[in-house]
């Protein structure tokens, strides 16, 4: 059976960010899982203006997009499943994540999403729970499993490796299994999808 395409989205773009370390960790585990072809999408590489298209997505799901978004849109469209790597910013997710979500519609439709969160005390959980609501509106299924790194700076060493990998690795494996189950089911089901 061909492997499903899993896009790992790096959800922070600020200078000095920690997001790529967490994204690399989950991308490596997803590759080891064996069921996925993994694509790491760094939102810092894309042009994602906050000014959205004039026509709402329900009326035009494929609006004209900036040239600097073309590669991003293609890779989101190619994905069967997503892992969003997100910190908590003021008890929610970074604005760049809202921008990439709002610029796209069919790219999320009837696909499955998992999360890896990290931050100070809240470990990305507030971002994750907010994102579940947003993806619900886009007809994307968010899986129950997730990974959370509260006080991530104590959990990763200076090389970006986890000091005690067992528990988070187990949580990641459970999430990846759930993503695989849903992605396989939804990939079959998408061929019969009628959009309304
Ligand atoms: C604007 C901003 C708001 C933040 N708000 C929270 C927060 O509400 N809860 C929390 O635990 N950490 C918060 N933090 C700490 C971040 O989660 C932490 O700095 C993390 O490294 C951010 O991810 P990044 O390095 O990939 O940008 C905030 C950081 C920033 C920059």
Automatic annotation (TrEMBL):
Top-level taxon of origin: Bacteria
Domain NADPH-dependent FMN reductase-like: 5-151
Gene3D superfamilies for this protein: 3.40.50.360
Pfam family, one: FMN_red
Protein name per Swiss-Prot or TrEMBL: NAD(P)H-dependent oxidoreductase
Protein source organism: Myceligenerans indicum
Lineage, uppermost ranks: Bacteria, Bacillati, Actinomycetota, Actinomycetes, Micrococcales
């Amino acid at each position: 059976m061909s492997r499903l395409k899993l896009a790992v989205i790096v959800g922070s773009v600020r200078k000095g960010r920690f997001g790529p370390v967490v994204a690399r960790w989950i991308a490596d585990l997803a590759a080891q899982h064996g069921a996925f072809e993994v694509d790491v999408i760094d939102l810092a590489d894309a042009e994602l203006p906050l000014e959205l298209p004039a026509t709402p997505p329900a009326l035009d799901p494929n609006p004209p997009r900036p040239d600097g978004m073309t590669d991003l849109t293609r890779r989101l469209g190619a994905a069967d499943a997503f892992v969003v790597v997100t910190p908590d910013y003021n008890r929610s997710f970074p604005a760049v994540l809202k921008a990439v979500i709002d610029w796209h519609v069919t790219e999320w439709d009837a696909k499955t999403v998992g999360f890896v969160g990290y931050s100070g005390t809240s470990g990305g959980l507030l971002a994750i729970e907010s994102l579940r609501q947003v993806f619900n509106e886009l007809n994307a299924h968010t899986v129950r499993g997730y990974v959370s790194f509260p006080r991530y700076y104590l959990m990763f060493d200076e090389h970006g490796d986890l000091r005690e990998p067992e528990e988070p690795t187990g949580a990641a494996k459970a999430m990846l299994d759930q993503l695989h189950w849903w992605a396989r089911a939804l990939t079959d089901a998408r061929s019969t999808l009628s959009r309304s």
